[in-house]
Amino acid sequence: MSKPQMNKRPPMKKGVLKRLLGMLFREYRTQLLVVVVCVALVAIASTIASIFMNKFLLLMEEALKGGGWESISAEVLKNLLVMLIIYGIGWIASFLYTRLMAIVTQSFLNQTRQRMFSAMEILPLRYFDTHPHGDIMSYYTNDIDTLRELISRSLPQILNSGLILILLVYNMIRLSVWMALVIAVGVVGMIFVTKTVGGNSAKFFLKQQKSIAKAEGFIEEMMHGQKVVKVFCHEKTSEKDFDEVNEQLCGDATNANRFANILMPIMGNIGNILYVLIAFVGGLLVMLGAPNLSLSGQAMTFAVVLPFLGMARQFTNNVSQVSQQMNAIVMAMAGANRIFELLDQEPEVDEGYVTLVNAKEVDGEIVECEERTGTWAWKHPHSADGSVTYTKLMGDVRIENMDFGYVPEKLVLRDITLYAEPGQKVAFVGATGAGKTTITNLINRFYDIDDGKIRYDGININKIKKADLRRSLGVVLQDTNLFTGTVMDNIRYGKLDATDEECIEAAKLAHADDFITRLPDGYNTMLTANGANLSQGQRQLISIARAAVADPPVMILDEATSSIDTRTESLVQKGMDALMKGRTVFVIAHRLSTVRNSDVIMVLERGRIIERGSHEKLIEEKGKYYQLYTGAFELE
């Protein structure tokens, strides 16, 4: 069965940060406003040192002129008290906003994961056929983690540093415009370095996120297929393939972190040079008695120069902090881009309006009822006159001139026409890739046909809601999927409101009860890792019991007994015959012995039905089925 090719990763979308922040502010507006206020208080507390240093130095100059300590002591103590109060408020604000951001971050990530999972659950099956499962898992791990770093640390840090820089610029201009211009020269150099080095870092951080997803996809695939790897002794080959993927990740991560790691030392050295330059220029201006230009009107003295040294150090440190957070922002944008890619996927389209309801017969007419009666009906509203009609669910399936291809330019099925009347057993046989499983996928509407029609009890299945359509179909797949939980939970998966007694009866019908009761905890035995503690045949029996408890009118058995030994198959076949009684059944089998008693057998080859009829009729015709049956009892 051919499948669509893997989709290439789309480029970074525009407006990712705006969209992310929009989601964040819509849901946590009040909390974030409190955070902004707290960050502003922290920024104010962080910049008052230079202001009070200037005041203390001016007071010292006044004392040295002859006033002595007594003339300034009261003012000094007053300023110290004010400074301590401001620092205390800053400490409380810092504690509050870090705690609040931790709560906001985890709540936002929780909601984002829920939103992602909800979006994933309504995606068409085609999406999962064209995307590696490890890559999808990476959305919930690495990509989500980049958002955690952005929201909890980077955004508050950038806001804090930005406010500090604004306050520092004001304080610098208030003390000396000439000295502020010296710092401006250093800032130009810092911006140039950030743009050059940070740009290269961003490019490789984007590659790193893609390489992580690729590596996780490879590891997930190898874990899932570990038995196959060992059977064919491919350990060394797998190691070599992994080394290639891992080396690509290592290279991208090394390049990204190399540029990121050299950024801080460069910025630190620029800050050191600027510190020395401020001291030199300031000292020179004081010695020369140069006039000062400032908002405060102070003369150029060491009371102006010394606070500037502290402000220069603080200024460069905060510019470095902002530059350093750019890497986290770039990584978060790469992660958010992938998350939005998942959220923006087109959901499975369902334009159906015919629903499945419980029904009963009253005076020969089908009427809807609340209680479960064992009778189901299709509820068909008619928009033309507002009337509603009910059609009893019988299980009559008809396919007319159907064409289908997973990709438009390559058809898998061509001109398929068949019918299955209520209670009939229809079997599909043919080589791998002939299109047998594809037909059953189309009946379930996992994919939509390109041309033709599929009618269910006379209703075009495009008019039936997908959930109701699938609820009327029981499916037993060749690949068994069991979920973490008890055996009883896995059987009940077919009907969530089933009682324990109904589940046990279904297990007996599938001849699974015998081995289940011999398990350590019977029906309460925990299953993990897709039922790894059970044999393949036992897992298949549980999946048959799961279909049996659903009690649907139509059954699809896709190689349902392929993993069961001959003795068990004979037992299961009896249970299957009881399960199939009165139901429309589609059977896909390579073992021709399992389809002999079918009402009609469809022989497929290259997407076409080349023969159809009962076992005896096809044997008499001595065509393809005759060759398969007499040549070997297995198609493969």
Present the secondary structure layout.
Elements (H helix, E strand, L loop, with lengths): L15 H12 L1 H39 L5 H49 L3 H5 L3 H43 L1 H48 L1 H6 L3 H54 L13 H42 L11 E8 L2 E4 L7 E6 L6 E5 L4 E8 L8 E8 L4 E5 L6 H8 L7 E6 L2 E2 L5 H6 L1 E4 L8 E2 H6 L7 H10 L3 H5 L8 E2 L8 H15 L3 E5 L7 H15 L3 E5 L11 E6 L2 E6 L1 H7 L2 H8 L5
Parallel strand pairs: 7-14, 7-15, 10-13, 13-14
Antiparallel strand pairs: 1-2, 1-3, 3-4, 5-6, 5-8, 8-9, 11-12, 15-16
Helix pairs in contact: 2-3, 2-5, 2-9, 3-5, 5-6, 5-9, 6-8, 6-9, 8-9, 13-15, 15-16, 17-18
Which structural class should the secondary elements be placed in? alpha/beta
**Percent of residues in beta strands?**
5-15%
Major sheet strand order: 10-13-14-7-15-16
Helix content: 55-70%
Radius of gyration: 37 Å
Helix tally equals: 18
Shape: elongated
Summed up, the domain count is 3
Report, as a whole number of angstroms, the end-to-end distance: 15 Å
Task: Give the low-pLDDT segments.
Answer: 1-10, 632-636
Per CATH, which architecture of the largest domain? Answer: Up-down Bundle
Question: On the 0-100 scale, what is the average pLDDT?
Answer: 83
- Number of DSSP-assigned strands: 16
The H-level CATH homologous superfamily of the largest domain, spelled out, is ABC transporter type 1, transmembrane domain
| CATH fold category name of the largest domain | ABC transporter transmembrane region fold
CATH class of the largest domain: Mainly Alpha
**Biggest sheet overview:** 6 strands, mixed
